[in-house]
Amino acid sequence: MQITIRGHHLSITPAIEETIRSKFADMTKHLDQVNSMQVKLSKDHQIDKISKKGSGNHIAEAIVRLPGIELFAQATADDMYTSIKKLTEKLKRQLHRHRKMQSEYQVITI
């Protein structure tokens, strides 16, 4: 499986890269159909005028390519590690739903 990690207005540190690789490896260890993943991390530099700080300005997006389908998820948080965690949780739900639909389809066709 190929994981591509890009940063927009943000440099990808080795710690962030290791976090992403470990979380996505754990998520897909029971699913060998994943062709590739693209992860885009960005930081929005807009500041809230009332609180004078950025709220939810760390954005993590991912595209997971499986045979015949692409899954997309996006998560935002005040911290990049939190947004990566939220992103993996969203993708886990989508992958679980995809596996469930595949198993139901196989039961019907047999």
Automatic annotation (TrEMBL):
Family of this protein: Belongs to the HPF/YfiA ribosome-associated protein family. Short HPF subfamily.
Native source species: Acinetobacter stercoris
Alphabetized UniProt keyword annotations: Translation regulation
NCBIfam families found in the cross-reference section: yfiA
Protein name: Ribosome hibernation promoting factor
Entry-linked PANTHER family: 30S RIBOSOMAL PROTEIN
Keyword Transmembrane helix included in the entry's annotation: no
Transcription regulation among keywords: no
SUPFAM superfamilies according to UniProt: Ribosome binding protein Y (YfiA homologue) (SSF69754)
InterPro entries in the cross-refs: HPF/YfiA_ribosome-assoc (IPR050574), RHF-like (IPR036567), RHF/RaiA (IPR003489)
Pfam families: Ribosomal_S30AE
GO molecular function, one term: ribosomal small subunit binding
GO cellular component, as recorded: cytosolic small ribosomal subunit
Annotated gene: hpf
Lineage of producing organism: Bacteria, Pseudomonadati, Pseudomonadota, Gammaproteobacteria, Moraxellales
GO biological process: negative regulation of translational elongation
Transmembrane segments: none
